[in-house]
User: Fold this.
Amino acid sequence: MFDHIAQTIPYQSLDFAGSVQLTVKRLDLIHPQISGNKFFKLKYNLIEARQLGLKQMLTFGGAYSNHIAATAYAAQLFGFKSIGIIRGEELAHKPLNPTLTTAQQLGMQLVFVSREKYRQKNNHDWIDELTQHYPDTYIIPEGGTNELAIQGCQEILTTEDLNHYDVICCAVGTGGTITGLINASSSQQEILGFSALKGDFLQQDVSQLTHKSNWKILDDYCFGGYAKTTVELVSFINNFEQQYRIPLEQIYTGKMFYGIFDLISKGYFKENAKILILHSGGLQGRS
Ligand SMILES: *Cc1c(COP(=O)(O)O)cnc(C)c1O
Assistant:
């Protein structure tokens, strides 16, 4: 299922009366559940799990997590069982939201844990415990970022993308996707990340993972932090969707597009810059 995907992703240029050229790479159209970048992040992890002869995938996420949805779907497609460790033990006694309903229908076993427990998601002791409790299991961290995910994200950009565009824009959560883009980029390109989270820790995390310097992560457009939103952001998204017929959401891609248009209005980009914008998906659960 992964073969040739990167070559077949549609591009859409935005009719935009300004001094730059905007093209959207529609990773959101790859698949409604394994949305956008998650597809690339899972690819080598699934291949690795299969080579190791493991039987199931286990990962972590919040109740609306795109990564949970993508993992549930991809695991089923590859013939793995899957387990989702979900933040919030109170959710176990409530009706499931669309994301978790779909995950469960795809065969994912949902395990609800307290927020306190969930915070230990990268703690070795807990990972060891999970490995013993669920044998033959491949564990993927929250958000899906690890070395193999970065390797997969290096395949998002085609040779044509590397030759043609001056700037590549993407939304940033854990930083796995942008790290793959940076690794693949040519040195004349600028990779510009729009953080969905507040703080400059992502800038530091990513600089540990690459020696290149042709990139930047801005948190100026996080609208107060992860999953926070404002009336202004919602209204921007509504207008954008009407004008360009491209669906966005408020956590990642809405904030990124808002930021890109704001930077254009401030003259950030050079005249006639060719800008490639990655639409990383995230539209599952919006039923
Ligand atoms: C997960 C996600 C991101 C962030 O990707 P990272 O590799 O974690 O930085 C961006 N956009 C969407 C729609 C996502 O679901």
